[in-house]
Amino acid sequence: MNIFRTNRNTRQLVFFTRITSLVLSCVGAFLAQKVLQHKTDQSMTLNFALRGKRLVAANIIGTLSNLQRVDQCIVQCMTNSKCRSVNYNKKIKVCQLLDENIDESEIGKTTVKDEDWNFYGYKRQERDFECVEVGGVNRCCYANGIVCTLVKSCKQLKLRCPLCKSGFYRIHLNSENIDVYCDMEDEHGGGGWMMIANVTVENEEDRFNKFIEKVRNDDLNALKNVTYGGFALSEPTVRTIRNTFTEIRMKCHKPSHGRTIDVVFNNTQIIDSVLLNSVSNEEKQPCQNTDYYLLPTDNSILGQHSCVVTGTRYDIVTAKLYNHGYFRYSLGHLHIHEPNRMDCDDFPLGSNQPRDFTGNWQYFLR
Hints:
single chain, 3 domains, five-stranded antiparallel beta sheet, elongated, disulfide bond
């Protein structure tokens, strides 16, 4: 027998065995990481351990044997949508999948001492606020290194991030993650406004493509197109998110006269019954400092009067948000309901004012 050859073969076998073990470990870790990453997207992972304790105040939804390592037990929990925590017996290699997580204030009542068992669950950590830009959209959320919860409004974003600039942000609205444009400028009433309409008429012919029937959209997800100059979220869709805002802001500007309307309605009754109600046919006279207020950018003629009118009694329309939302008869209107009435602090019909339709109209919620 060639002892040198035998030793060499033995060393090769040992080397091969170690390499194989290392590869399998890496593959297993990679798969485990993928599973953990997948579960993290669902806002759940395990980051908390109690050694020598077993959770008893939970239902066992699965028992697995012959799991040699605790990470294998945790991976099994990650792949089960009902699993919230695990008990792992390091002596007999048994894994219990549990349907409840632990309440730290109840540890003494919900767990029992058992040296052979360890408990693994989720411990909520203090949340920081983080913003990351992805594809031109800012994703700002409460993060703890494990869970990332998006803000629910531009107003909430402004409160959490006072220095954030105006732009597109992803928020959690109406049970969906939606990209919206947030006006964050302090001089605009403190910022935190979500834009729901933006209409730009570039010339006289363009008005036939930009009045409300041409630009109205029912899809919240289409808010990502709001800055293109031909978009208005429909009043029925605005009503579906009524519980997310308390103010409606209307803004417009026409280069021909150089004036800007920038007004905010904050009266609940006016917002509900006049601006958004689908059957209302009423006209209201809100008074300044009680039902609406002007922002610093407003230099309109309408803004110089203590009381104006919102809504219209002359015709039945689906809502008044885009039709006579803000006006004073024969003096000035804010109106994009029809191509011949693209008004902004003017009232060209029956007056000596020139007919100029070019301008920009914007609507916001907060």
